Amino acid sequence: MEHHLPSTPGNVHWGLWDAALPPVLRIASGDRVTIETLSGEPEDMPEPASGFQVLPDHKEVLATTSRGPGPHLLTGPIYVEGAEPGDVLEVRLLDIKFRTDWGWNLQLPFWGTLPEDFPELRRLHIPLDRDRNIAKMPWGQELPLAPFFGNFGVAPAPGWGRLSSTQPRAFGGNMDNKELGVGTTTYFPVFVPGALFSAGDGHGVQGDGEVCLTAIETPLTGTFELHVRKDIKLTTPRAEKPDAWITMGFDEDLDDAVKQALRDMIALVCEHSGISRQDAYTLCSLAADLRVTQMVDLNKGIHCVLPKAHLPRR
Hints:
There is one protein chain. This protein has helices at residues 56-64, 254-273, 277-287; strands at 2-5, 12-14, 16-17, 25-27, 32-36, 73-80, 88-98, 102-107, 122-129, 134-136, 142-144, 148-153, 163-164, 172-173, 185-189, 197-203, 220-229, 238-241, 244-251, 289-294, 300-307. With 314 residues, it is mainly β. Strands 1-5-17-7-15-18-19-21-20 form a nine-stranded mixed β-sheet. Strands 2, 4, 6, 12, 14 and 16 form a six-stranded mixed β-sheet that branches.
């Protein structure tokens, strides 16, 4: 079955992940849902004189929704029938469409990778040419767009309470991983009945690291297919592309994030191939790539990418 979830007031929560949020939609495992998302707080909106299209529901959500501890607008949560704690939610991203003709990029004092070098506030509103799939940068460059959702996942464990939308954690959240675009499947450990999936934080394009604090942030519509998996056990998110496996680590210390992502890749290799952990460690040293996902969300991110062609067969 197919569903549509608009980004209207009541369907969007602002700045938080919380297992106590009631679901706004219930679906069956295997259903598809097209989710409208928003991106931008009041200060991020372009001036009316700019001529940019601002979505009416964006204005309505900002005017009527209570803000949590973080900045992101997230559509959901969605209850997936049959999902129970200990299961895995398989999230297939089938399609992304841009909703507006602009995006924004922010440099904020005391944030980013080089806050000591760039202490000033700067907010850019960047035109998006959806027909040509490019962003028109203010210095004259045209930059190809490659959209994905920076912030998506399942509800955290109830005992964790209300969490900011800023930090990525074991339930997903603000992963800001540019690899997770159309055609990617992401697997999340489930912590609550129904999984309670949400998505938002649309990105038009981003480099690994997201070094100045943000990507080109922009409202997106995504089509997802959600499956409950009872045959998989995970403690952190993983992702799969047609040609590669991806594991992820999140920690304030980049070294510890590396260890998380690498340990999970070693476990993945062992699960799929049956080789020993020590052999898998060697394989990762020879064939896997560690990449810095983002440096700016308090919990930094690392993702480890292993081409499927280099995964031994059982």
